[in-house]
Amino acid sequence: MTLTYKVGVTNLDFTLGFTENTDLTGAKINDWLSPRTLRVRDKAIENSASAEFIDFIFVKEASNDKYETVTFADKGKHIPETIEKLLSHDLYVSLKSGK
User: Fold this and answer.
1) Whole-number pLDDT of residue 87
2) Pick from 44, 49, 57, 46: nearest CA to 13
3) Nearest-5° angle of CA 13, CA 16, CA 18?
4) Burial 1-22 (b: 16+ CB within 10 A, else e)
5) CA 84 to CA 57: how far, in whole Å?
6) Which residues pair with 67 in a beta bridge?
């Protein structure tokens, strides 16, 4: 698994959140940690000339064609139509209804 993060740093104060590497039952596989969240303080991202915000984070098993879980959703944002085909029907309906 590969995760790529692009971060511009100029006196940026941020916190990375990590999660343990576990299997589907929650049993720890090894001592690896995976980045899960990035929290920025002091409006550093807002003040950046080329900043981008994450509106949604979706999760799926590698063997699945469509995303079935959302781990983050900006409540003020709507799912773009171009994303609908990437989500399971149940997840899309749930997000559109605001649940």
Assistant:
1) 93
2) 44
3) 165
4) eeeeeeeeeeeeeeeeeeeeee
5) 14
6) 87
Q: If you search the block for the tokens 């999660």, which residue do you land on?
A: 19
pTM (2 decimals)? 0.49
**Residue 60 corresponds to which tokens in the numbers above?**
């799926």
Q: What is the per-residue pLDDT for 86?
A: 92
Two tokens, residue 72: 């983050």
pLDDT digits (tens, 9 = 90+) for 4-36: 666 666 666 666 778 888 888 989 999 888 777
Per DSSP, 11 falls in state S
| DSSP secondary structure of 55-96 | -EEEE--TT-SSB-EEEEE-TT----HHHHTTB-HHHHHHHH
Task: Give the pair of three-digit tokens for residue 39.
Answer: 């929290």
